[in-house]
Structures are given as structure tokens and as C-alpha cells.
Amino acid sequence: MKSFIILTLSVLAGNVLGAPTTILEARGSDSVSATDLSNFELYSQYAAAAYCNGNSGTNGDLITCPTGNCPLVEAAKATSIVEFEKSSLFTDVTGFLSLSPSTKTIVLSFRGSHSIRNFLADIHLARIPSDICATCVVHQGFWLSWLEARGTIVDAMTTAVGENPDYQVVITGHSLGGAIAVLAAAETRKAGINAALYTYGQPRVGDEGLDKWMEDNAGAGNFRVTHRDDPVANVPSLWTGYTHISPEYWFQSDSPTPQVGDFTVIEGDTSTAGNGGTNVLNLDIGAHLNYFGNIAGCGSGITF
Q1: Mean pLDDT of all residues in 160-186
Q2: Rg of the chain over CA atoms, in angstroms?
Q3: Catalytic site residues?
Q4: DSSP string over 224-262
């Protein structure tokens, strides 16, 4: 199984015979603020909550994490507006849309890789046009996953925003969930909603057309958080035509409570100054799971 994973990641990363060696660029020097750090932790916990089975079945429940890894979400008394689990032959997309009167937020959270079908979506390399913009070409598997849930989510989001116009909309997810969150944020912003996007260990989603559109239509901000040599955040490879939304918020600390000084802000859709310059074949699954603690702690494990 390990040899299969190595081969798969080799293809995704472009680390095949004859592929050039990546050269690290100068590291970014900007730092994050205390508010950024607080939000990184809070929305990582919303992403973590999407892994909990109890948050993907019944609408109207309080969002909870039996493993204790989303105390900030529980303290906010976030209640699900809609919980969704959409499955088809090749993909499934799971998560929730929640509302917290105490923090005045509407949060859409997507679960990361958690099944064989998710794995098949993760490794699908084909890119296809999308209806985000004329030049927005996206990963086919991620796009199909988003389409499965789009109708349910857009309807519920439109209603929630209409009833709570002064609430901040935030969209988040880890791993595959982060990739789908990017597409959901694009759709939400196209509808005129000023959404913030927080992703953790998110793979590349599309090409420069998508990234430019997301950066030009940044809403309340794009916050792409990466950890050390997380392999998932570094696939599909730049060599295959995929790029990342800028900026990247890269940290190397293994602490479940990283500090402001642990983060480097890196600009550029194709930069190799952060996670993009690390070796995906290290298979550092620990780096992929460790975002302010075990972000997938509610799950039974991530399948690659």
C-alpha cells in the first residue's frame, strides 16, 4: 500500500524521471497578526468539526466534537442550518452550514478525505472549465464534488444571509474539504456575499485563471494555511499546470498552539518558498493532520 501511495504522489507531484528539481525561493518576511492567529485557530476547529459524524445528519443540532477538538465552536453555540452528505459513484461531499448568534457568523465547513471515493476524487488530475469565470479551469474531481452539494448549500446560504444580513460568512475546510471550500467561496462571492475563506492543507484546485479570479474577488479574505511539508497541500504539482491562491500562511511548528512568529506569509501563485518547496515524497501525514491539533481527530482516519 505504501508503495502505491508513493507512486501516486510521485505522479501528482510531477516527481517523475526527468523532472527538474525544485529550487527554493527567498522566504517571505511578513507575519500574521494576533487576530489572524485567533481566526486560524477558530476556523480550523470548524473544519475539524466536519469530520464528526454527529454533524452531518440532523439539521438544527449544536455543532459538537466528541473528541474535544472544537471547544471554540462549542463555546460559540453554533447550530447547524443544514447538514449534508452527498454521495455518487466517484465522490462524496460532507459538511454543514452553521449559524452562531454570539459571534454573528455563518460558517460553511467541508470535511476532508474520509473514504475511498474521496481518495478517487483527490487523485483525479483532469481539469475542466467551470462557470466561475471564462478562464476558471478547475480540477474535475473537486468540481464534481462541489456540484453534488451546490444546490442544497446555495439555497440554505441565501436564506441564512437574507435573514442575518449583518453576519460574517466564512467558508472553511481541510484537505479535500479545503479544495471544495475554494469553489464554494467563489460561488458565494459571485452571488455578492462578502465571504472569507480559510483552508488547511488544501490541494491545488485549478490554474492561474481561477487563482486570479479568487484574488481579484477576495471577499473578506483568502487565508490558505499550510503546515511544514504537508504533502496534500503540494499536489497536484505545478508541473501539471495547477497553481495555488495567494497568499500562503505557512508554519513549521509542531505545537498544537502555534504562535504569530511561527507563520510566514508567502506571496505568489507558483511560489516554492513555503510548502510548495518541500518534498511531497516525504509522506509526512502527521504534517497534514496537525493544524492546531489533530484536525481530523473526529474521523476514523484519512485514506490516501
Answers
A1: 96
A2: 18
A3: 175, 230, 288
A4: EEEETT-SGGG-S-GGGT-B-PSPEEEE----SS--GGG
**How far is the C-alpha of 102 from the C-alpha of 131, rounded, in Å?**
35
- State how far the alpha carbon of 295 is from the alpha carbons of 49, 67, 302, in Å: 8, 11, 11
pTM of the model: 0.89
Give per-residue pLDDT as tens, 209-237.
999 999 999 999 999 999 999 988 998 88
pLDDT tens digits, 178-192: 999 999 999 999 999
C-beta separation of 106 from 161 below 8 A = yes
The residues, any chain, with a CB within 8 Å of residue 38's CB and separated by 6 or more, are none
Cell of 201: 492543507
Q: What SS3 class is residue 129? A: strand
Nearest to 100 by CA among 132, 136, 126, 73: 73
- For 86-111, what is each residue's pLDDT tens digit? 766 556 789 999 999 999 999 999 99
Distance of CA 59 to the CA centre of its chain: 23
The label of the residue with cell 464528526 reads 52
- Bridge-partner residues for 224, per DSSP? 199, 248
C-alpha cell at 204: 491545488
DSSP at 139? E
